[in-house]
C-alpha cells in the first residue's frame, strides 16, 4: 500500500494505471476509519482493479463554530485498517495542497442543499461539493463510493455528477451500524458512556416510524411527532430536526404516498448525530 501526499504524485499513479486499462474505485473520507468506511472500500475493491482511499478533514465543510480542529484524527490507525483492507493507495493531502493561498472557486448545488442538514449547517454542502469535485478531478475515478449514512450528501453528489457531466459513476452503500443499532461514525468517540447508551434510540425511533407507516399511518406530521416523543422521553438528546422528505428533491412530504426518506439530526451534548431510513 502506498501513502501519497502530493497531487502530482497521485496523478502520475492514476495515469500509469489508466495506461494499463485498470479501473479505479475511489472512497473519499475524513479518516478515523471504521467498518462503515471499510464497507465502501470492500465494494470498491470488488468492482475495480485499483482502490484509492482519500483521507482529508476538509475545513471548507465545517462552520466557524464546528469541530474542525477537534475532529478525530489518527493516521497510524487508519493506515493499519487500510492495509488490512488491501487498499492500494491512501491519498492524504495537506490542507495547503488542496486549498493554496488565494483559493477562490466553490461548487454550489441549488435547492437540495437548503433542507435537512443544510439548514443547520449553512455552507456545509458547498464545502462537500467543492472537495468532492476537486478529488474527482485529481483522481478521475471510474466509480466513487459514498455511504447512505449521509443520505443528503449522497443525493447532492449524484445530482452534481449528473449536472456537471462528471465521468465517475456513483455507488451508494448501505448504513453500517453497531450491534445496538447506532450508526457507526467517527464522531461517536465524542460520546460519553451515558450518551453512547442512549444514542441507539435514534434508530429505534426510525424503526418505530417504519412500522407505523406499514400499519397505514400516512400523516408525516404524526410520525414526526411520534419520533420526537420517543427520543425526548428516552434520552437526553436534543433534536435538531426530524424530517420526512421526497427521495429525489428532498422537499418535505405531508402525506406519505411514495418512497420517502426519514432523516434526523440530534445533539447528544456537543455531539451531533445523524441517522435516516428509506421507507
Ligand atoms: P466521513 O469520513 O464521515 O466523511 O465518511 C466518508 C464516507 O463514508 C461517506 O461517504 C460516508 O457516508 C461513509 N460512511 C461513514 N460512516 C458510514 C456508515 N456507518 N455506514 C456506511 N457508510 C458510512
Helices and strands in order:
Elements: E1 2-4, H1 7-19, E2 24-29, H2 35-47, E3 50-55, H3 75-84, E4 89-91, H4 95-98, H5 117-120, H6 124-139, E5 143-147, H7 151-163, E6 169-173, H8 193-198, H9 201-214, H10 220-234, E7 238-246, E8 260-268, E9 271-278
Parallel strand pairs: 1-4, 2-3, 2-5, 3-4, 5-6
Antiparallel strand pairs: 7-8, 8-9
What does this 3D model show about the protein?
Helix 6 packs across helix 7 (151-163) and helix 9 (201-214) runs antiparallel to helix 10. The chain contains 10 helices and 9 strands. The strands form 2 sheets. Strands 1-4-3-2-5-6 form a 6-stranded parallel sheet, sandwiched between helices. The model has no long low-confidence stretch (mean pLDDT 98). It is 39% helix and 19% strand. The termini are far apart. The radius of gyration is 19 Å and the shape is globular. By secondary structure, it is of the alpha/beta class. The chain has helices at 7-19, 35-47, 75-84, 95-98, 117-120, 124-139, 151-163, 193-198, 201-214, 220-234; strands at residues 2-4, 24-29, 50-55, 89-91, 143-147, 169-173, 238-246, 260-268, 271-278. The protein binds adenosine monophosphate (AMP). Adenosine monophosphate binds next to helix 2 and strand 5.
Amino acid at each position: 500500500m502506498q501513502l501519497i501526499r502530493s497531487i502530482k504524485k497521485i496523478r502520475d499513479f492514476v495515469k500509469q494505471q489508466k495506461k494499463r486499462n485498470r479501473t479505479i474505485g475511489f472512497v473519499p473520507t475524513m479518516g478515523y476509519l471504521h467498518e462503515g468506511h471499510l464497507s465502501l472500500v470492500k465494494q470498491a475493491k470488488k468492482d475495480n482493479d485499483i482502490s484509492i482511499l482519500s483521507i482529508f478533514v476538509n475545513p471548507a465543510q465545517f462552520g466557524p463554530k464546528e469541530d474542525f480542529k477537534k475532529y478525530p484524527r489518527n493516521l497510524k490507525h487508519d493506515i493499519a485498517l487500510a492495509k488490512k483492507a488491501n487498499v492500494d493507495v491512501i491519498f492524504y493531502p495537506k490542507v495547503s495542497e488542496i486549498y493554496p493561498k488565494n483559493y477562490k472557486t466553490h461548487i454550489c448545488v441549488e435547492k437540495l442543499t437548503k433542507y435537512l442538514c443544510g439548514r443547520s449547517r449553512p455552507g456545509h454542502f458547498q464545502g462537500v461539493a467543492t472537495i468532492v469535485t476537486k478529488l474527482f478531478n485529481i483522481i478521475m475515478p471510474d466509480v466513487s463510493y459514498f455511504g447512505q449514512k449521509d443520505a443528503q450528501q449522497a443525493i447532492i453528489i449524484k445530482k452534481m455528477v449528473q449536472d456537471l457531466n462528471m465521468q465517475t459513476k456513483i455507488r451508494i452503500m448501505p448504513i453500517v451500524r453497531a450491534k445496538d443499532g447506532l450508526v457507526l461514525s467517527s464522531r461517536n468517540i465524542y460520546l460519553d458512556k451515558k450518551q453512547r447508551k442512549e444514542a441507539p434510540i435514534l434508530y429505534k425511533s426510525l424503526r418505530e416510524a417504519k412500522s407505523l407507516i406499514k400499519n397505514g399511518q400516512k400523516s408525516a406530521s404524526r410520525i414526526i411527532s411520534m419520533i420526537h416523543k420517543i427520543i425526548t422521553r428516552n434520552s437526553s438528546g436534543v433534536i435538531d430536526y426530524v424530517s420526512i422528505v421526497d427521495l429525489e428533491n428532498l422537499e418535505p412530504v405531508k402525506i406519505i404516498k411514495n418512497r420517502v426518506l426519514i432523516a434526523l439530526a440530534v445533539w447528544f451534548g456537543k455531539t451531533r448525530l445523524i441517522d435516516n431510513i428509506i421507507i
